[in-house]
């Protein structure tokens, strides 16, 4: 069925006579990983994970005077997960990653309808999460206005589960999909303006989460600021949350604040220094002060080993992240990023401990003709607090917590 659907889609799009308005491209992205402490503390008795996954995409685009449309077909495959010679053995990973139409309402205004990736600024709160093979999308309608350096988006989403017998088929609207901040409803407004050396944006978002019939509404509001002049750059985030999160938990005083500086010391070296504070849980039963960055590209922040806020660390002790980096331009389209991050809890753990540990990340990238090679190595030096946080006694933990990976990114343009 998948193959027939792909053939049908290709036939429909290639039947369009105006090929100047039609694009067809793809992506093949295999990644091999050695996981010996990725995302969690591994014990000495556990065997490190090793495997390869591949993301395959086929993207169709069409542009006209009245509208643009885009369809992205995606499959995520783990090597060896399906038995050979058994075509019905499927992991259900095939999906339509994006399917949207952007209707032009005027010279500066349009409305984008359908399944789409939504990303703003540094992707701290809203991001495409492209590192994960499946990535993130939203089923939404977004009214978009852009004139000169000013941009305004208004997004609306209402999610439904037709398979839920108490939902669409009858009179109710119960939404059975939960976890990882899956929302029933979402409304947001985003404004941004840019000047010569400075830009600022404002994001205000309301999410409704449904678990047992009632809907809990969580509000997130904040700003992202950037400044760049000559060799110096700075970025800042400040966000707060209030309302109720999943499980009808009251959110009070939750915040995220960050400040990062960059300096281009030479054509070959760029230096970075910054800090981020994310509030933790300081409330009693049914209440929390913990902030969660919701739909951001969290792999980009707080270390690439994903110990924090990547499907984990929700409603926990928060985080204080102090980091420094150096990005080396090695020439011949190659670069090397070296960064060190020191972590501690914004709140104390049960033992009174705050210190969590230090992570060292190395990421190498090189562009070749038609493809890119990216590889990385990370090491976590855990402190007492990290063992307590992850629930693993230090005496049973492996002596080394590390992660290594290598990835090819191939993006052919067929038309």
Largest sheet: 18 strands, antiparallel, barrel
Q: Spans with pLDDT under 50 lasting ≥5 residues? A: none
Termini gap: 25 Å
Q: Estimate the helix proportion, in percent.
A: under 10%
Rg, rounded, reads 23 Å
CATH architecture level-2 label = Beta Barrel
- CATH classification class: Mainly Beta
CATH topology: the name is: Porin
Q: Number of helical segments?
A: 2
Oligomer: single chain
Give the topology string: H per helix, E per strand: HEEEEEEEEEEEEEEEEEEHE
**How many domains is the backbone divided into?**
1
β-strand amount: over 45%
Number of strands: 19
Could you explain the architecture of this structure?
By secondary structure, the chain is mainly beta. It has one domain: Porin (Beta Barrel), CATH 2.40.160. It contains two helices and 19 strands. It has helices at 2-14, 384-390, and strands at 22-36, 49-63, 67-78, 95-104, 109-116, 138-147, 150-158, 185-194, 198-210, 215-229, 232-245, 249-264, 269-278, 287-288, 319-331, 334-344, 355-367, 371-382, 401-410. It has an 18-stranded antiparallel beta barrel. Strand 11 and strand 12 form a beta hairpin. The longest helix is centred in the N-terminal third of the chain and has 13 residues, at 2-14. The chain starts with a helix and ends in a 5-residue tail after the last strand. The relative contact order is 0.13. The model has no long low-confidence stretch (mean pLDDT 92).
């Amino acid at each position: 069925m998948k193959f027939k659907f792909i053939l049908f889609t290709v036939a429909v799009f290639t039947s369009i006579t105006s090929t100047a308005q039609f694009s067809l491209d793809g992506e093949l992205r295999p990644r091999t990983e050695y996981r010996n402490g990725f995302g969690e503390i591994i014990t000495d008795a556990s065997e490190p994970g090793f495997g390869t996954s591949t993301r395959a995409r086929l993207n169709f685009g069409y542009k006209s005077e009245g509208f643009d449309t885009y369809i992205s077909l995606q499959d995520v495959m783990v090597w060896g997960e399906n038995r050979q010679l058994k075509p019905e053995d499927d992991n259900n990973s095939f999906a339509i990653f994006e399917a949207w139409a952007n209707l032009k309402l005027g010279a500066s205004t349009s409305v984008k309808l359908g399944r789409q990736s939504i990303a703003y600024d540094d992707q701290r709160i809203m991001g495409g999460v492209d590192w994960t093979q499946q990535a993130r999308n939203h089923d939404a309608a977004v009214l978009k206005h852009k004139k000169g350096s000013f941009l305004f988006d208004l997004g609306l989403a209402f999610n439904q589960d037709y398979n839920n017998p108490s939902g669409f088929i009858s009179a109710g609207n119960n939404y059975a999909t939960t976890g990882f901040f899956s929302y029933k409803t979402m409304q947001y407004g985003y404004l941004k303006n840019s000047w010569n050396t400075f830009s600022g944006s404002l994001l205000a978002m309301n999410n409704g989460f449904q678990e047992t019939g009632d809907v809990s509404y969580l509000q997130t509001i904040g700003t992202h600021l950037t400044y760049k002049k000559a060799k110096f750059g700075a970025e800042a985030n400040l966000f707060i949350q209030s309302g109720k999160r999943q499980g009808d938990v009251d959110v009070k005083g939750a915040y995220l604040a960050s400040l990062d500086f960059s300096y281009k010391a030479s054509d070959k070296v760029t230096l970075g220094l910054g800090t981020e504070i994310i509030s933790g849980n300081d409330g009693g039963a049914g209440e929390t002060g913990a902030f969660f960055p919701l739909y951001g590209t969290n792999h980009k922040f707080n270390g690439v080993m994903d110990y924090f806020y990547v499907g984990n660390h929700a409603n926990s002790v928060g985080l204080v992240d102090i980091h420094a980096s150096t990005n080396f331009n090695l020439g011949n389209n190659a670069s090397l990023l070296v960064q060190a991050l020191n972590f501690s809890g914004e709140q104390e753990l049960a033992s009174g401990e705050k210190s969590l540990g230090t992570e060292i990340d190395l990421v190498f990238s090189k562009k070749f003709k038609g493809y890119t090679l990216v590889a990385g190595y990370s090491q976590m030096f855990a402190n007492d607090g990290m063992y307590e946080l992850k629930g693993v006694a230090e005496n049973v933990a492996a002596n080394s917590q590390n992660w290594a990976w290598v990835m090819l990114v191939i993006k052919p343009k067929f038309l």
